[in-house]
Structures are given as structure tokens and as C-alpha cells.
């Protein structure tokens, strides 16, 4: 079995120490593949003097040239023909600029194993039928965003009795229908099956506030859950403290904090970071996270804030095995949490722009100009 499959088949999704060797092997094979099959990526590594065959230790992975997400939003680079990538997903996009990531079949199967294991530990995978309220996009042929595909995919983790969407495609654009969602929640409260909410925290908060203002407080069946993901995005000014949302969810829906689950991820890094019972994002075996100094880009120690560098060997369609996001974060030791998971955890503390950030992929823009834009 190839090292990527071995890694994603590991029984304990948080056994970081026990998977270090296979993770390094998987990263080496992934990097070699992209080096051989993506000309632009090969030029980037060559320009940095990095030999993918030399990845033999975790410290070698830290030296691997990374791509900033802003680079992936501006350019399309792939490591295999389009027909070999059954799914191509995009990021949400800002100002019409978005990443487009191609997924190979084996990578998708690895992702399925990951979701079942990580969510299985949080009791999300279940034979219990559920009503679903998706506080996000209703699927549409023109919507290729990863967040829409992911949200709908999560409704397959149990038998779905019903699906209600907050954002519906009407007259050529998505429009929110929170009042329709609120009425559906009231109907679901009379169902014998639990309700699961999936989607953006902003729309979840808006729905809770609307229901509270209208006196539409309900008591949902036991087993109901709220699953948050995708961040506040354009509603960052309305962002509230998590404890405030937990309290309103209890008041309006009678859902306890222990049944509110948050996840973190990115289209450019499709690894599932699911919070523990203490609401911390422990790093799963399928990835490694490095926090880098915003000025020098050197790796930082535990507790020091910096740019978030996300690493995984999951995807062969697009060279995204090491990317730097515009998130600012901190890595904490496992024992600082106390939930029992023996893996460090990532805390997201804010966002940063890339206007003044110099990365080791800075020369990639010039390489792409010479290559003529979209390349493989």
C-alpha cells in the first residue's frame, strides 16, 4: 500500500507521533509526483534549490517551498489532465477571485476515510435519520465552491429526512431566506427526528437572532446538533463571541454547547479540523501545521503567533501539499487543552493580507508569465 493510503488508513486520527515516518514518506512521494508532472511547480522548487527526493525528515518538510493561497487564487496549475480529476472545487472567492483545486480519485477516497474517522469521534456519523437545515448554498450547476459541496456532503453522514437551504439561487444570484428557514425549524421541532444545522456561523447567528426576536423558541428532539464552518467572511463586523452564540442556541433551540461543533479548513487545504469537546482544533494525522513569522517566514515555537502554513499529501491533482493562508494562528501543546486528544491544536486568532508578505514562491509570478498563464 502506498504511504498516502497507509496514512489515511491509520486507525487513530490524532496519533501524530505514531505517523511521523509515514507522513514524511507520503509527503516525499506527493512532492515528487508534482515535481514530475507540473512544470511551474518544478520551476518553483528548482528556483529555491529544493530537491523533493531529499524529503527524509519532518525538518525537510518545513523547508519545502510553500504557495500562498493568493497565488492559487490568481493562477490555475494542475499536475494531471482534467479528465483524471473527477472533482474540481473552488474557494468562496473575494471580489470574484478564487482558487480552483483539482482532486484525484484516490485523494477523494482518502478524504472520505478522514471524514468518517474524525466526525466519527464526535458522534456525527450515525444511522439515526435527521432533518437538515443548511445555512449555506443550495446546490446549483453553476456553484462549484468547496463549501457548498462539503455542506451537502455532510448531509450524507446520516439518512436525510429533509433538507432546507438558507441561500437559494433565484434570478441569477443567491438570496437568503432566513424566515423560510425559521419556519422549517419550527416544523422540524414537531418531527420525531433530530435536526442538524450545517453552515456559516454568520447565517446561523442571524437565524437564531431572528427566531428569538419573533418569539419562535422551540425544543428540538434529542440528538440535534449545530455544525459550523466557513468563517464569518464578509460579515466579520457582526462576529460575536462563541459563548454568546452557544447561549442563544440553547435559548432558541434547546441545543446544548456540547452539541455545537465547529470545523476549520480551506479549499486549498481540504483537511478536516474538527473541534474537540473544549472547542479546540487538534491537528489530525493527515496534516502538519507550521506557524511562520510574518516578517522572516521562519517556523515559530508553540505559543507564538504567525502565518498559518498547512501541509498535507492528500491531493495529487493540484500542488497544494504546502500552502500558506492569510490566517494568523498559534499552535498549542496538547496538554493545554485537557480533552484527552494527544495532538497539538491550532488556534486561529485573525487574518492578514499578503500585500507586503514576501514568500519563497515570489518568483512564481514571473515563471507563470513566461509559461503563458494556466498551465499543467
List keywords for this structure.
376 residues; six-stranded mixed β-sheet; disordered C terminus; Rossmann fold; seven-stranded mixed β-sheet; alpha/beta
* Total E-strand runs: 15
Task: Determine the fraction of residues in helical runs and give it as a percent range.
Answer: 25-40%
Report the portion of residues in β strands.
15-25%
Order of helices and strands: HHHHEHEEHEHEEHEHEHEEEEEEEH
End-to-end Cα distance, whole Å, is 27 Å
Assembly annotation: single chain
Provide the residue-averaged pLDDT. 89
- Biggest sheet strand line-up: 6-5-4-7-8-9-10
Show unreliable segments.
355-376
Total helical segments: 11
The radius of gyration over CA amounts to 21 Å
The major pleated sheet works out as:
7 strands, mixed
Quick structural summary:
With 376 residues, the protein is an alpha/beta fold. It has helices spanning 3-8, 20-37, 39-47, 58-63, 69-74, 105-121, 146-154, 178-188, 201-213, 242-253, 364-371, and strands at 67-68, 87-90, 100-103, 130-137, 160-170, 173-176, 195-199, 225-228, 260-266, 269-274, 281-282, 288-292, 306-311, 322-332, 345-351.
